[in-house]
Specification:
Length: 223
């Protein structure tokens, strides 16, 4: 599924209350499989959405969530850490904490608004604020349709601040045969942005390059 790089890398992953919990859960599996340590944050609305869209029911406390998500992703002990919504002493809450990318997947339009205006009413919003002010990698995966003018203005503002806006809009050129294939399309793009090796799907043009290499002679010249 995913090749394993250094096990010492940390990725911050937040789930908010937009539709598309499957994207975040699949991303968690892939990050764990890649050997990353994952710091997880879950909003109250995300718990509701997750229970509605999947068979996974998250318990109410961070330690219990941590056990559930660790089992779900087949994580090693301590590889998945869940922090509470007001855990201001957690690493994602401060610029002096561990420097790590933050992916909010899925990202609600309410979270977009909070980040665009500098609100820090909970740990997820504070982690996003830290990522922006420290110029750390911030990937936001909204899943909304249609976008209002406010949504678009917030996305433009956040893009100008350095965030990557990656709507959960899968392509079809890989000829998906299942919903799982559509989910993997977006997760593969996130992993690419995080510079993590992935085999969920080939990158655009790889087949063309392989064909050219196979048709060339031992000196790399075309016939």
């Amino acid at each position: 599924m995913v090749n394993k790089p250094s096990p010492s890398r940390t990725i911050n992953l937040a789930f908010t209350g937009a539709s598309g919990a499957q994207y975040g859960l699949r991303l968690l599996q892939c990050l764990v499989a890649s050997g990353c340590r994952v710091h997880v944050m879950v909003s109250k609305a995300a718990q509701v959405v997750m229970a509605t869209e999947t068979d996974l029911k998250l318990p109410g406390t961070p330690p219990a969530m941590q056990r559930t998500l660790s089992d779900y992703a087949s994580a090693e002990p301590g590889q998945v850490l869940v922090f509470g919504r007001e855990d201001w002493f957690s690493p994602p809450a401060s610029g002096s904490g561990e420097k790590a990318p933050l992916v909010i997947c899925p990202c609600s339009t309410g979270t977009l608004s909070a980040l665009a205006t500098g609100a820090s009413n909970n740990l997820i919003e504070r982690a996003g604020d830290v990522a922006l002010k420290e110029k750390r990698q911030l990937i936001l995966v909204p899943r909304e349709a249609p976008y209002s003018e406010v949504h678009l203005e917030n996305m433009l503002k956040l893009t100008r601040m350095g965030a990557v806006i990656m709507p959960a809009s899968p392509g079809f050129y890989h000829r998906p045969e299942s919903v799982h294939d559509l989910v993997d399309f977006i997760v593969a793009r996130i992993l690419d942005h995080l510079d993590l090796l992935q085999e969920l799907m080939p990158r655009w043009g790889e087949a063309r390059v392989s064909a050219k290499l196979e048709s060339s002679d031992g000196f790399g010249q075309q016939d």
